[in-house]
């Protein structure tokens, strides 16, 4: 494979086009361009170095494989699990009567919002040169040149639009509360990676994850499907929101040094590496405490709490990794992101099973 | 060779660089060091000091003590590294620890660092001394991180780049930044010069990792794998084929005499090409920095050219 190096000036139209399209016409040939280095300094350095390969030589897997990788299926549980938990908890376990139509709309609307977040996040990280080839983060489809940021951005906004379209029938006349929650969700997703606020790149982004995959989601889903909600939905939201935050925080521990170097701001950077180690433990502990209190006072079946305890060994190993690490660049942190997601999936499954069982 | 491209004055300065210690109380240390880590080194770091000094318009005599310090610090890290790696040879000669003992090798390295502190403190450039102290801290941190990663197959790029930055690039970065400080330049020029050294150092390490897989190289094939370390090329292979992780994990740090390497030649070739491309990108940044430095009023064109030659040499280095 013949690869060359090409330097483009920062803030130039050519650079923006190269980043968006992933290709460039150069020396009468079409090249695939992947950003590799950023040369930046007040004294006359302002370019981005690209690795360029003839498009004919770039190996790409089939479209389905690319799509599957782009949507990051492991991360979909962050939003789906709380919704399913609410449906199973309120509908199956407690016998509330759902609107089946609304249940389907909620599930698919939330799924579309989560897909939008994944895709738009990848695009924005790529355009900000945060996720360059070889860095941790993102689905990897842009870093490998398998698809362009422009295409991914179109799909991201398409899923966002579809989520709104699916969510509109859920809004009853006079249900201002649901409208409010819906707007929070839609606005939160739109501004998470993109737009003038780009909440993800600020310390508050982690808290937004907690809200949007936690209480806002569970209360909103209960209201939409059952036209009511109560304390147990709120407690479930707390539990899932905190475990999502922990999963997010695990990823930030793994990418701490890269984030720090790129000037990104998240909760882990804000509180510092040492405190971030404790914070991971605090998040999981708070999640268990909230579920425990919810099973005593909040109407959540005790068996749910008993089942999620089975996840403690996995969480213990995750926390141990952090304490074994000599610092933010230690090899012990290389698996934090994947293991954090696995814990989230396992916790969600256990909770769902707990709600399904009736004993 | 690199030295052929050097301006005459720089060549003279390097050849006449005094690396004698004259340890009054224990002369044996002097002898041991001169036969091992101070024996016929490439003096790449002193060369960087002199060339950058000329670019910033600093007299070579003023740079000389810092060039000597750079070589001593490098030699100290080599002495300590050989103890950590339990290496019997370096540059085809017995290491300090092999000739003497681990204890003496550690002490000899400590002596070099102490001598650097003593000599530089006499010159009174506090900022340069502070920079060097931070650099030694980086060297130690880099070695610590690498030690932690022995026999660990799952590493990521940030880890490898950080280790390269601390272990290899930090001292080169200091060499370049020192010249800017001696010239009385403000922090932005110091940072620019340091960035040049850093890019050079990381590219140097990447190329070294490619050469590690050269069958005709000076060192045994895949020496890093034998030492239990995943390098940039190995990481590329693992990213392209995750199924390689398990068989690799079994041989990391414990390569049998008749080993069947788990990767295909095409895997290795593609991975090496990718790492070379990444090194090229780093060298491109270094080249752009050099373009800025060459615009300094007192900069020596010959020195700029020599540094450009170093970039080309690294780009084309195969063993």
TL;DR?
With 359 residues, chain A is of the alpha+beta class. Chain A has 15 helices and four strands. The chains are: A alpha+beta (359), B mainly alpha (319).
The total domain count of chain B is 1
Alpha plus pi helix count of chain A = 15
Label the overall shape of chain A: globular
Mean of pLDDT of chain B: 91
**Radius of gyration based on Cα positions of chain B:** 20 Å
CATH architecture of chain B: Orthogonal Bundle
Task: Tell me the β content of chain B.
Answer: under 5%
Query: What is the CATH homologous superfamily assignment of chain B?
Result: Farnesyl Diphosphate Synthase
Distance between the termini of chain A: 62 Å
Oligomer: heterodimer
Residue runs with pLDDT of under 50 for 5 or more positions of chain B: none
The first-level CATH class of the largest domain in chain A is given as: Mainly Alpha
Question: What share of residues of chain B is helical?
Answer: 55-70%
Give the end-to-end Cα distance of chain B, rounded to a whole number of Å.
12 Å
- Largest beta sheet: strand ordering of chain B: 1-2
Spatial order of the strands forming the largest sheet of chain A: 1-4-3-2
Order of SSEs of chain B? HHHHEEHHHHHHHHHH
- Which structural category fits the helices and strands of chain B? mainly alpha
Q: H/E order of the elements of chain A?
A: EHEEEHHHHHHHHHHHHHH
Structural class label of chain A:
alpha+beta
Write the layout of secondary structure elements.
The complex is a heterodimer of chains A (359) and B (319).
Chain A: E1 4-9, H1 13-21, E2 23-26, E3 29-41, E4 45-54, H2 63-70, H3 77-93, H4 100-127, H5 149-167, H6 176-193, H7 204-212, H8 215-226, H9 231-254, H10 256-262, H11 267-271, H12 273-297, H13 302-308, H14 312-324, H15 336-356
Antiparallel strand pairs in A: 1-4, 2-3, 3-4
Helix pairs in contact in A: 3-4, 3-8, 3-9, 3-15, 4-5, 4-6, 5-6, 6-8, 7-9, 8-9, 9-12, 9-15, 12-13, 12-14, 13-15, 14-15
Chain B: H1 8-15, H2 27-35, H3 44-55, H4 60-85, E1 89-90, E2 93-94, H5 96-99, H6 102-123, H7 126-148, H8 157-182, H9 187-211, H10 223-226, H11 232-240, H12 245-251, H13 265-293, H14 301-316
Antiparallel strand pairs in B: 1-2
């Amino acid at each position: 494979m013949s690869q060359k190096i090409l330097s483009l000036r920062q803030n130039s139209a050519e650079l923006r086009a190269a980043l968006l399209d992933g290709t460039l016409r150069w020396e009468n040939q079409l090249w695939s361009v992947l950003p590799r280095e950023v040369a930046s300094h007040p004294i006359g350095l302002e370019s981005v170095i690209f690795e360029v390969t003839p498009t004919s030589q770039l190996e790409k897997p089939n479209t389905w494989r690319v799509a599957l990788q782009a949507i990051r299926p492991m991360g979909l549980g962050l939003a789906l699990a709380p919704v399913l938990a609410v449906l199973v908890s309120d509908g199956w376990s407690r016998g509330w009567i759902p609107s089946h139509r609304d249940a389907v709309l909620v599930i698919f609307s939330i799924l579309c919002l989560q897909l939008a977040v994944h895709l738009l996040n990848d695009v924005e990280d790529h355009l900000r040169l945060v996720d360059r080839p070889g860095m941790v983060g993102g689905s990897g489809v842009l870093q490998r040149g398998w698809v362009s940021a422009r295409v991914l951005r179109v799909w991201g906004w398409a899923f966002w639009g579809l989520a709104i379209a699916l969510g509109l029938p859920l809004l009853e006349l006079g249900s201002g509360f649901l409208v409010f929650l819906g707007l929070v969700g839609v606005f939160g997703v739109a501004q998470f990676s993109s737009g003038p606020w780009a909440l993800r790149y600020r310390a508050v982004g982690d808290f937004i994850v907690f809200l949007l995959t936690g209480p806002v989601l569970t209360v909103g889903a209960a209201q939409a499907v059952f036209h009511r909600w109560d304390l147990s939905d709120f407690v479930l939201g707390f539990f899932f929101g905190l475990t999502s935050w922990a999963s997010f925080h695990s990823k930030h521990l793994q990418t701490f040094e890269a984030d720090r170097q790129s000037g990104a701001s998240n909760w882990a950077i804000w509180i510092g590496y040492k405190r971030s180690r404790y914070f991971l433990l605090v998040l999981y502990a708070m999640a268990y405490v909230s579920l425990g209190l919810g099973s005593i006072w909040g109407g959540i079946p005790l068996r749910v709490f008993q089942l999620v305890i089975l996840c403690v060994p996995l969480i213990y190993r995750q926390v141990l990794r952090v304490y074994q690490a000599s610092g933010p660049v230690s090899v012990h942190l290389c698996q934090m992101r994947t293991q954090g997601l696995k814990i989230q999936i396992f916790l969600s499954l256990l909770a769902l099973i707990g709600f399904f069982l009736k004993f | 060779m690199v030295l052929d491209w050097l301006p005459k004055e720089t060549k003279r300065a390097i050849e006449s660089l005094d690396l004698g210690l004259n340890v009054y109380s224990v002369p044996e240390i002097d002898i041991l060091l001169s036969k091992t880590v101070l024996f016929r080194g490439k003096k790449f770091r002193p060369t960087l000091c002199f060339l950058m000094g000329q670019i910033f318009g600093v007299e070579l005599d003023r740079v000389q003590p810092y060039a000597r310090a750079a070589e001593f610090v490098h030699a100290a890290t080599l002495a300590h590294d050989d103890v950590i790696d339990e290496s019997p040879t370096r540059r085809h000669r017995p290491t300090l620890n092999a000739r003497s003992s681990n204890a003496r090798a550690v002490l000899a390295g400590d002596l070099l660092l102490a001598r650097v502190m003593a000599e530089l403190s006499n010159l009174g450039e506090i900022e340069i001394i502070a920079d060097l102290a931070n650099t030694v801290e980086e060297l130690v941190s880099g070695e610590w991180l690498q030690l932690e990663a022995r026999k660990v197959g799952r590493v990521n790029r940030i880890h490898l780049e950080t280790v390269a930055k601390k272990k290899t690039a930090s001292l080169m970065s200091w060499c370049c930044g020192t010249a800017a400080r001696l010239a009385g330049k403000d922090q932005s020029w110091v940072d620019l010069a340091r960035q040049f050294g850093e890019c050079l150092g990381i590219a140097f390490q990447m190329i070294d990792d490619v050469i590690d897989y050269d069958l005709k190289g000076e060192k045994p094939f895949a020496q890093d794998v034998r030492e239990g370390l995943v390098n940039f090329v190995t990481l590329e292979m693992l990213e392209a084929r995750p199924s390689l992780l398990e068989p690799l994990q079994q041989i990391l740090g414990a390569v049998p005499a008749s080993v069947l390497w788990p990767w295909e030649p095409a895997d290795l070739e593609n991975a090496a090409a990718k790492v070379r491309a990444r090194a090229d990108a780093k060298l491109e940044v270094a080249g752009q920095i050099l373009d800025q430095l060459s615009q300094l009023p007192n900069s020596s064109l010959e020195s700029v050219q020599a540094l450009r030659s170093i970039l080309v040499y690294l780009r084309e280095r195969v063993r």
